[in-house]
From TrEMBL, chain A:
Protein name (Swiss-Prot/TrEMBL): Xanthine dehydrogenase YagR molybdenum-binding subunit
Domain Aldehyde oxidase/xanthine dehydrogenase a/b hammerhead: 38-143
Naturally occurring in which organism (per UniProt): Tropicimonas isoalkanivorans
A Pfam family hit: MoCoBD_2
GO molecular function terms noted in the UniProt entry: iron ion binding; oxidoreductase activity
SMART domains: Ald_Xan_dh_C
Domain of life (superkingdom): Bacteria
Signal sequence region: none
From TrEMBL, chain B:
Keyword terms, alphabetized: FAD, Flavoprotein
Domain called FAD-binding PCMH-type: residue spans: 1-221
Listed name of the protein: Xanthine dehydrogenase YagS FAD-binding subunit
A matching Pfam family: CO_deh_flav_C
SUPFAM superfamilies for this protein: CO dehydrogenase flavoprotein C-terminal domain-like, FAD-binding/transporter-associated domain-like
Domain of life: Bacteria
Species of the source: Tropicimonas isoalkanivorans
GO molecular function, one term: FAD binding
InterPro entries for the chain: CO_DH_flav_C, CO_DH_flav_C_dom_sf, Diverse_Substr_Oxidored, FAD-bd_PCMH, FAD-bd_PCMH-like_sf, FAD-bd_PCMH_sub1, FAD-bd_PCMH_sub2, Mopterin_DH_FAD-bd
Length: 729, 327
């Protein structure tokens, strides 16, 4: 049976809160945690598949052009080498998130340095890697290559453009205004687990174990690339060692493994090297942003301009959605927002954690800080003054709005000093100390999701869906929802994820996973409760299910009478998506130190206050926020992709040279969760949470750097060279 | 990784002999070499494991402290004598890499580590150090972290280490066994080379020579500082680092042994600095003069320009701290 809800309006907030188990929202440790820390959780490359051959991708050493010749014979003469494959169906880029179709194929055509062009398969990984490194390839290089985003021809993105009132006139007439340009460098997802796949054919049926975020889309992408039916494909991705967008779509190793396994008639494993992950997978585009803000004497915004330029490869429609939250975060009658996309030959730009807001929000919040300073208003008060009652561009009400609460409670918890602010007020030894803040916002989305919940005759629940857990806590929160609804302690709930043989979930990405698949599990459980209530001759609301017993003393096992029950929950977003503006909100507060001599900046402490609907697990939710804040620190201070200006190759393709924060960079971080119920956000009144923690945080750090030492940075990250260049004498 | 033979050396003489064979390389901790082998930057035919030789102890020698070639970086950094008498060395080591790497990395291996220039580590890019005559990819490329002193038209790579910078300030000596010239000692200050026309030669070790120990001179008076400027607070190579041993006498500088990391193809030691500083009373003007001397031939090629003011400012900060007399 299927329990279906297409959400056109609010759901009953009392229902889920009326349950008795007391499991939901609690800080339950991750139920798969033991398997992970003991090394028994199988990641993509670790499945015990009989006798796999090992494949290693060969990557292009030109930027643009054609492969004219591959010396297969020399490679095949090397020890252990089984095949050199350059099948036209091999993919040359990762699929964009939710593409549902094959990305670019035809590996003989090269459009970026480091693009996969072939796969070498051998008996051992070392033999394959050695042969891949030695493979002689001839190219016909095309010298006409655009590599500089500032020089390439912009393509306006009309869907993003908004013109309301007269921005220029409002800027000219305003009491206070700022007009500034901010640039952010590109980012890498830098997930811990490299991309890997093991492909295994049984006749015409293919099973691929891979590290993927969205099996519901990935199965279609893989089937399309291979030219087979989805019904012949099974994807398994039980544990994923981080994704952050880089595993939204199938990447090159998945198709390469499938084609190689088909050709050789035995399983093939392809694991990317760390360098390949950096150079063949998604980058977050660098951005060039112009912010034009103006306000009246009381600090009310009158003009809001935000224009951005981002880049991607030819043929890609994805454009880093820098303006996503700028459309609704602050009110102002005169508005001008626009995006340009330029085509350059760096590797594919796509979704990296919090696409859009991760770089758009810090830039906006840096501009807000400058305007607050000009207007002589405390930056917290300045933001509070400009929160709109409804979406200022579309006349849509907000499903809920927690920005003001986050600003107030965050400031209180941080100990924000709302007195007069000026730079260089405090120095300790060689270090300037300062504080800064920023708002947080990240659009909330939900996606269609199905999950099966089986109640066994022994009174255990089994949850099944192809949804993935990237290390975020999906296993645990689904067990908590099922346990809460069915009155079972957590050890009587089993969750099976990451297998396309299960009902299709929403995939992990865009922060929509928990709210969407959680709603599907909730709906399935609700239907099961109704059946149990029927058997118990009572109303569903009066069941009082707890610890396997029903109000009045009967047990669940009794009521099941040796029979198993099963329901599929099916959740779909409906009119609520179009009739309301839904977003998570928050506020960041940071204290930093900047070395007077060297320009080194370090974050002493940081606090994030967030409102994102129901908290499903206090511990995993908090960890998501901590992770987001850690990413904020990286985006603010260290993370930057560096591309060679001559051939566009990524010059820092590993974790030694691409600087994510280390433990010592992440000192005292506090998270304040402002729990609410948003009945329009999802069937379980929860919103997205995974990305909000980095949507503005780098701006708070930049504002704190200014407050500390007086350097207004126009570029992120704020590496010592940039801080020194901006430091006043 | 190319297939290779693996053998264990039985003693230093055996190690020297076996590593002199064409295509043979010594391996100890392997923290740098194995990474380079995976990338096919290094493709030895034979790895001669010297890791089990008896060179793993720290001993007091008549003329100072003798640190065996195989003493791990961790063991050196925590040794009570090192901490008490040579804190600049302990601090330099602890400023490098990570605990896990320091647990494996050895004295000799650390001295011999290779540049982290990403054109050197990417075999699909030109590099005169890796593939002589192929050109320098870093010049005109991404070269933010590259050298500003002692560069050549062939190479602008930096020596990446921290430990050797402190050893250069301390005027430690490298003890070398084997080879045609027999045993010899080389000051750390002269152990690494500038790239010149032969950038593939990182140091003065000849084929078939094995480092057996590093000796530190008798402890000296003065304040010891290791200041490493880096983009993140751990696990990052130095933008600029300074090892300083500075002693004051009656308000004047009595000793100023300075060495610099992150600026050149070797730990940078400029004897003109001590000449300038010793005998003078500390002042911002004096420190500026020292920076002028240090950087008079500085030459940044593409992205590393910031290192010139950064080195100047860091030197001022270190000298200020080193010459402060507490009140």
């Amino acid at each position: 049976m299927t329990a279906h809800l297409k959400q056109d309006g609010p759901v009953d907030r009392a229902h889920l809160d009326g349950m008795q188990q007391g499991l939901l929202g609690k800080a339950v440790p991750r139920i798969e945690g033991y398997a992970k820390v003991t090394g028994t959780a199988t990641y993509a490359a670790e499945y015990d598949v009989a006798d796999p051959a090992e494949g290693v991708l060969v990557t292009a050493t030109i930027t643009k052009g054609k492969v004219t010749y591959i010396d297969n014979d020399a490679a095949l003469a090397m020890p252990g080498v089984l095949a050199v494959i350059a099948d036209a169906r091999m993919t040359t880029r990762p699929a964009q998130g939710t593409a549902g179709e094959a990305p670019e194929q035809e590996p003989q055509s090269v459009s970026y340095w480091g693009q996969p062009i072939a796969v070498v398969v051998a008996e051992t990984f070392e033999e394959a890697r050695n042969a891949a490194k030695h493979l002689v390839v001839a190219y016909e290089a095309d010298a006409d290559v655009d590599l500089d985003p500032a020089a390439a021809q912009p393509e306006p993105q009309d869907g993003q453009a908004v013109e309301m009132g007269d921005l220029t006139a409002a800027m000219d007439a305003a009491t206070h205004s700022v007009d500034l340009t901010i640039e952010t460098d590109g980012h890498a997802s830098a997930a811990m687990e490299p991309h890997a796949a093991i492909a295994d054919w049984d006749g015409d049926n293919l099973t691929v174990r891979a590290s993927l975020q969205m099996l519901n889309y990935n199965i279609a992408e893989l089937a399309d690339a291979l030219g087979v039916e989805e019904d012949n494909v099974r994807l398994i991705s039980r544990y994923v060692g981080g994704g952050f967008g880089s595993k939204l779509g199938i990447s090159e190793e998945v198709v390469a493994a499938a084609l190689a396994a088909r050709q050789l008639g035995r399983p093939v494993r392809v694991v990317m090297s760390r360098q390949q992950v950096f150079q063949c997978i998604m980058r977050r585009s660098e951005t060039h942003q112009r912010l034009q803000l103006a306000c009246d004497a009381e600090g009310r915004l009158t003009a809001f301009g935000h224009h951005a330029r981002v880049s991607n490869l030819p043929g890609e429609s994805f454009a880093e959605p820098v303006l996503q939250s700028s459309h609704f975060l602050y009110g102002a009658e005169n508005r001008s927002l626009g995006m340009d996309l330029v085509r350059i030959h760096r590797m594919t730009a796509g979704s990296v954690r919090a696409p859009g807001e991760a770089v758009g929000m810090p830039a906006l919040e840096m501009a807000m800080d400058e305007l607050a300073e000009k207007a002589g208003i405390d930056p917290v008060a300045f933001r509070l003054r400009n929160i709109p009652g409804e979406n200022p561009e579309e006349d849509l009400p907000f499903t809920s709005h927690t920005l003001a609460d986050c600003l107030r409670q965050g400031a209180e918890a941080f100990g924000w000093d709302d007195g007069p602010r000026r730079p260089r007020m405090r120095r300790e030894g060689d270090w300037w100390i300062g504080t800064g803040m920023a708002s947080a916002a990240r659009v909330h989305n939900v996606s269609e999701a199905k999950a099966r919940v089986r109640l066994t005759a022994e009174g255990r629940a089994v949850v099944q869906t192809d949804m993935t857990d990237l290390g975020t806590g999906t296993y645990t929160i689904l067990a908590q929802i099922a346990g809460e609804m069915l009155g079972l302690p957590i050890d009587r709930v089993t969750v099976e994820l990451g297998d396309t043989n299960h009902p299709r979930g929403p995939g992990s990405g865009g922060s929509w996973g928990a709210a969407s698949i959680g709603s599907a599990v909730y709906l399935a459980c609700k239907a099961l409760r109704e059946e149990i209530a029927r058997r118990a001759n009572t109303g569903e609301a009066e069941l009082g299910l707890k610890d396997g017993a029903v109000a009045g003393g009967r047990t669940l096992v009794d009521l099941l009478g040796g029979e198993a029950l099963e329901e599929v929950g099916h959740y779909e977003p409906g009119d609520n998506q179009d009739a309301w503006t839904a977003s998570g909100f928050g506020a960041f507060f940071a204290q930093v130190r900047v070395n007077h001599w060297t320009g080194e900046a370090r974050v002493d402490r940081m606090l994030g206050a967030f409102g994102f609907g129901r908290v499903l697990n206090e511990k995993t939710a908090r960890s998501q926020c901590l992770g987001g804040i850690t990413w904020s620190i990286g985006a603010a201070l260290t993370e930057a992709l560096h591309f060679d200006p001559r051939d566009g190759h990524l010059a820092n393709p590993d974790l030694a040279e691409y600087h994510v924060p280390v433990h010592r960079d992440v000192q005292d971080v506090e998270v304040l969760m402002l729990e609410e119920r948003d009945p329009l956000a999802s069937a379980i009144q929860a919103k997205g949470i995974g990305e909000l923690g980095m949507c503005g945080g780098a701006g708070a750090i930049a504002n704190a750097v200014y407050n500390a030492c007086g350097a207004r940075l126009r570029e992120l990250p704020m590496t010592p060279d940039r801080i020194l260049a901006a430091l006043p004498e | 990784m190319r297939p290779f033979d693996y053998i264990r050396a039985t003693d230093p003489t055996d190690a020297a002999e076996r590593t002199s064979a064409p295509g043979a390389m010594a391996i100890a901790g392997g923290t740098n070499l194995i990474d380079l082998m995976k990338l096919q930057v290094e493709t030895p035919d034979t790895l001669v494991d010297v890791g089990r030789l008896d060179m793993g102890s720290i001993e007091e020698a008549g003329d100072g402290l003798r640190i065996g070639a195989l003493v791990t970086n961790t063991a050196t950094a925590v040794h009570p004598k090192v901490r008490a008498d040579y804190p600049v060395l302990a601090r330099a080591i602890l400023a490098g890499a990570t605990q896990q790497l320091r647990n494996k990395a050895t004295t000799a291996g650390n001295l011999c580590q290779r540049t982290r220039c990403t054109y050197f580590t990417n075999i699909d890019q030109p590099c005169n150090k890796r593939a002589p005559g192929s050109g320098c990819g870093a010049m005109g490329g991404v070269a933010r972290l590259h050298a500003i002193l002692g560069t050549s038209d062939q190479c602008i790579a930096t020596y990446p280490g921290d430990m050797a910078v402190a050893m250069a300030a301390l005027d430690a000596h490298v003890h070398i066994q084997g080879g045609r010239g027999g045993d010899r000692q080389v000051p750390v200050r002269e152990f690494h080379r500038l790239p010149g026309e032969t950038p593939w030669q990182d140091n003065v070790l000849e084929s078939g020579e094995i480092i057996t120990a590093v000796t530190l001179p008798l402890p000296v008076k003065g304040k010891q500082i290791y200041r490493k400027v880096r983009e993140r607070s751990s696990y990052a190579f130095a933008l600029v680092s300074i090892a300083a041993i500075v002693a004051m006498d009656g308000g004047r500088i009595a000793r100023a042994d300075l060495a610099f990391g992150g600026l050149a193809h070797k730990p940078w030691h400029d004897p003109r600095l001590a000449d300038l500083l010793v005998g003078e009373a500390p002042s911002p003007a004096l420190f500026e003069k020292a920076a002028d001397v240090l950087l008079d031939e500085a030459d940044a090629r593409g992205g590393s320009e910031f290192k010139i003011p950064l080195a100047r400012r860091t030197l001022t900060a270190v000298l200020t701290e080193a010459t402060e007399t507490r009140t």
